[in-house]
Write a structure and sequence with these properties.
Layout: E1 17-23, H1 30-42, E2 48-54, H2 61-71, E3 76-80, H3 87-97, E4 102-105, H4 117-124, E5 130-134, H5 142-160, E6 172-175, H6 176-179, H7 192-198, E7 203-207, H8 223-241, H9 245-272, H10 276-281, H11 295-326, H12 343-350
Parallel strand pairs: 1-2, 1-4, 2-3, 5-7
Antiparallel strand pairs: 4-6, 5-6
Length: 353
């Protein structure tokens, strides 16, 4: 069975729920996880699929997943990545294969509870586009996991303006249109609710069960907190300036020019009007000398930084215009078009971005 190409989108109507499960070295957890998912979803009214993505495991996990796929070929699908790319890449691979109208990522370590899936979907049915899980009572190490997570979540909520408590919880529920065309990089899978709300989606949060790890080892550490912060800076920049990068670089450049001009004026002042700084730093040196103060260097530095920033802004403008125009992408998203026979087609076309 060939799983290397994204699933055809016209197959989405046949599936109600796609559960996306990236795994890495979880040989002792995938069988119990599949059993729990099967128990929860088989008694539900939804047509569902379980997409397991093995992220280059080396402990026998691929063999376990292959056995699950053979045994439950009606629901289970398997994607094997050639090496370990990271959770975000594995989740992106699962998204490419998903056919469901509702997409639910879940961790493969059994710490997320599959019994919460019906509750997440019920919350979607109340009019939301994204429902994010909140591990209010976490069973993780306090110093290495809980404290960094608390700090990162508060910082992300403050900078993004999206008031969620737990951005790192993998267990979430998305309507398909929210993730249509989304490409994930770095640690950005945790920021999907931010992207969604910035684009007008209705985002809710639901307390979910969090269980202690009973097998395998955690793949998370303190280093990922710094990666998350850096990715947050990137997405905030993309949100505000992706369509007008010259505004960001240009402002920095103009401020640099202004500081360079002030430094130049100060340099002339201290040479011809009040040479006290040169005497203060070195009384034996000529007070009329430019080079005995940092002002000439600062002037050159500020003017060079200003010029480089504006040139970078112009280059970024060219790149972004090429990005939008070469792929016929719009700079807007339409939620709905009413009136006229072609209104639905127009609305669907505008979501191609």
């Amino acid at each position: 069975m060939n799983h290397t190409q994204p699933a055809p989108r016209d197959a989405a109507a046949a599936i109600d729920v796609s559960v996306l499960i990236p795994v890495y070295n979880e040989v002792d957890n995938v069988e119990p996880l599949h059993a729990e998912l099967d128990t929860v979803l088989r008694k539900s009214p939804w047509r569902y699929e379980l997409i397991f993505v093995d992220d280059g495991s080396t402990d026998g996990t691929p063999e376990k997943l292959a056995a699950i796929e053979r045994r439950d070929s009606e629901h289970a699908r398997l994607v094997l990545l050639r090496r370990n790319y990271g959770q975000t890449a594995a989740l992106s691979a699962a998204l490419d294969q998903a056919r469901g109208a509702i997409l639910i990522p879940i961790d493969g370590d059994l710490q997320n509870d599959p019994a919460d899936i019906p509750r997440l979907i019920a919350e979607l049915d109340r009019g939301h586009d994204v429902v994010s899980g909140w591990r209010k009572h976490r069973h993780d190490a306090f110093v290495t996991r809980k404290i960094p997570s608390w700090i990162a979540n508060r910082l992300i909520a403050r900078l993004s303006g999206v008031p969620l408590h737990d951005f790192g919880c993998t267990l979430k529920a998305y309507r398909r249109r929210v993730l249509e065309g989304v490409r994930l990089y770095g640690e950005m899978h945790r920021f999907i609710p931010i992207f969604a709300q910035w684009q007008g989606a209705r985002v809710a949060e639901l307390v979910v069960n969090h269980r202690p790890r009973t097998a395998g080892r955690t793949k998370y550490g303190l280093g990922r907190t710094f990666n998350v912060v850096l990715d947050l800076i990137l997405i905030r920049f993309l949100h505000h300036y992706a369509q007008r990068p010259l505004h960001f670089f240009g402002r920095f450049g103009l401020w640099s020019f202004a500081l360079g001009f002030l430094s130049f004026v100060a340099m002339l002042y201290f040479k011809y009007v009040f040479p006290w700084p040169a005497l203060f730093w070195s009384p034996k040196l000529d007070p009329k000398s430019f080079v005995e103060t940092p002002l000439p260097s600062l002037t050159v530095m500020f003017f060079l930084a200003g010029g480089m920033s504006i040139l970078m802004g112009i280059q970024a403008e060219v790149v972004m215009r090429t990005y939008y125009e070469s792929q016929a992408k719009t700079t807007y998203l339409v939620g709905e078009v009413r009136g006229g026979a072609d209104s639905q087609a127009a609305a669907a076309g505008s979501d191609a971005r």
